[in-house]
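RESIDUES AND SHAPES:
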Amino acid sequence: MAHAHAAVMQPPAAAEPGSGVYNEKLGMWIFLGSEVMFFTALIGSYIILRFGTPHPWAPPGVILNIPITAFNTFLLICSSVFMVKAYAAIADGKKHFLRANPSIPRDWRLWRWVDGGLKFWFLMTILGGSTFVGIQVYEYIHLAHNGFLPSGIKEGSHFGELVAQGVVPAATAGIYGSTFYTMTGFHGFHVTCGVISMLYLFFKKVLPEKYSEHDYRGVETIGLYWHFVDLVWIILFTIVYLI
C-alpha cells in the first residue's frame, strides 16, 4: 500500500528548467487560460443581456428539459471522476482493463474485488463524454422540433403557442435562443474535441500500453482539459437551466 501511494504522488515526467513543469502540461495550462477568458466573455455577455433587459425572461423549466439535463450533468461529473481513476491507475502502474483482486473475498459487490486499470477507466471516461454529447444532440433536436431555434421561437410551433398565450415572453425569445445555443453549443464542441482526443490516445497509447507509471503525460494533460470542461458545464447548467 505504501508503494502504491508513493507511485501516485510521483510526477509523470521530469520538469523543464525554469517553468517547474513539463512542456505538455505548461502548454495545456496556457491553453486553458485562454479558454477561461473565452467562456468568461460568453457567460458575462449572457448575464448582462439577461439581467440587463427590462423585459422578463422565459422560465427555464418551460422550454428546457431540466431533468434530462440534470442527468446529463451527473453523467459528465461521473466521467470526470472516471478520469481521476484512470490517472490514479496509471500512476500506480495499472495498465490492465479489469482483473480480480485476490486479497478481497468475492461476492456480489463487484466494485470491491474487481480492480479497474487505465484501459477500463479511460474507456469509461470516453463513454461518459460521448453519451453527454449524444444527449445534448437529442435535446437540440427536441427543442428545434418544438420551435426553439437560435433565432428565437418559430411561429405556429408548440413554443410559439406558449408565446401567444403569454407563457413565454416574446420580447426576449430571440436573445434567449441565441445565447442558449451559443454557450451550450461551444461547450458541446469542446466536449466533442475532448472525446476525439481521448479516442486517439486510447487507440494509440492506452491499448498498446505505451503509458507507464514513469511517463503518463498524455493522461494528465487530457485530464486537465476534461476537468475544465466539466467545471464550465456546472456553471452553465446553473445559470442557464436553474436560474
